[in-house]
Amino acid sequence: MEISRLMRKPVTVTSGETLAAAAALMHEHDVGSVAVMEGSHIVGVLTDRDIVIGHVAADSSTRAVVQDVMTPQVVSCPATASVEEVAATMGDYQVRRLVICDDAGRLVGIVSVGDIAKHYSEHLAGETLGEIVEFR
């Protein structure tokens, strides 16, 4: 099965957006990550963990913006990849959410380990999660 059948429409923000606004979008759409865009180019990913560890736990008193705590290394797979290929990529890079791009490299979706468990295979999701949390 191609991952395009499981992926969700991405929620996006710009790198200059406030963390509070990004967190509000995550809450509104019930997602744990947003893609960070500059025009039509993805420049990073912001996760709920980035906000907590990178800002809240650091007791930052400044008005932080997304680029202050986002992850700039974007791991992605093509929309034509199989669910198994996406799960393997998640395990290889130890990420719980993966950006899905079209043939031109444009963002078309996001998939999580939870999406794989809910819509495809709990067993595959469990194996993938084991690789994600493995100490390397």
General description of the model:
The structure is a single chain. The protein has 136 residues and is an alpha/beta fold. It has a single domain (3-133), classed as CBS-domain (Roll), CATH 3.10.580.10. 40% of the residues lie in helices and 22% in strands. The strands form two sheets. Strands 1-2-3 form a three-stranded mixed beta sheet. Helix 5 (113-119) runs antiparallel to helix 6 (122-133).
Entry keywords:
single chain, 136 residues, alpha/beta, CBS-domain, three-stranded mixed β-sheet, 6 helices, 6 strands, 40% helix, globular
Task: Describe the structure in brief.
By secondary structure, the chain is an alpha/beta fold. The chain has helices at residues 19-29, 48-56, 66-69, 83-93, 113-119, 122-133; strands spanning 12-14, 33-38, 41-47, 76-78, 97-101, 107-112. The strands form two sheets. The protein has a three-stranded mixed sheet. A three-stranded mixed sheet has the order 4-5-6.
Might you state the CATH topology name? CBS-domain
Contiguous low-pLDDT stretches (5 residues minimum) are none
Distance between the termini: 30 Å
Please list the strands of the largest sheet in the order they lie side by side. Answer: 1-2-3
Percent in strands: 15-25%
- Counting structural domains, the number is 1
Rounded mean pLDDT is: 93
Main sheet properties? 3 strands, mixed
| Strand and helix order | EHEEHHEHEEHH
How much helix, percentage-wise, in residues?
25-40%
Radius of gyration: 15 Å
CATH architecture: Roll
Put simply, the count of helices is: 6
Structural class: alpha/beta
> Briefly, what CATH class?
Alpha Beta
